[in-house]
Amino acid sequence: AGSVGQQLALLLAMEPRVWELSVFDLDVAQVPVRGVAEDLSHLASRCKVTPFTLSINQRPATELPTECLSGCSLVFIHAGVPRRAGQDKSDFLNKNLNIAKMLVEACAKFCPR
Asked: Cα 41 to the chain's mean position, in Å?
């Protein structure tokens, strides 16, 4: 999880109306999602935090465990790759749109309401 995603997960975990939080990232993330979930579990809140990880070659809509998204009433997505020096804007946009597409497909499959 990136630093922005970690901070947003922290805020969600501290929110009294949130009782369960699934944290998902790829296994190539700089900070392992299991560590983020472990840190959040030390908060004085009633929120249950569960980490989920996929490899970079796996697709969320077909390989993400059902319990990650099933029954969710809110899905907050903070995902994408930073723009690299010299990278064409359309290449940057296409990569991030593909990431968003894969995550939205998983949401449509597991929590369509």
From this structure: 17
Tokens for 35, please give them. 């560590």
Query: Rounded to an integer, what distance in angstroms lies between the CA atom of residue 109 and that of residue 41?
Result: 28
Q: Which residues contact 73 (CB under 8 A, 6 or more apart)?
A: 111, 113
Q: Could you please report the per-residue DSSP string of 28-76?
A: T-SS-HHHHHHHHHTSSSS-EEEEEEE-TTS-HHHHS-HHHHTT-S---
**Nearest Cα to 44, choosing from 16, 7, 9?**
16
Helix (H) or strand (E) run with residue 3 in it: helix 3-14
Q: What is the pLDDT of residues 8-64, one digit of tens each?
A: 999 999 999 999 999 999 898 888 999 999 999 999 988 999 999 999 899 898 898
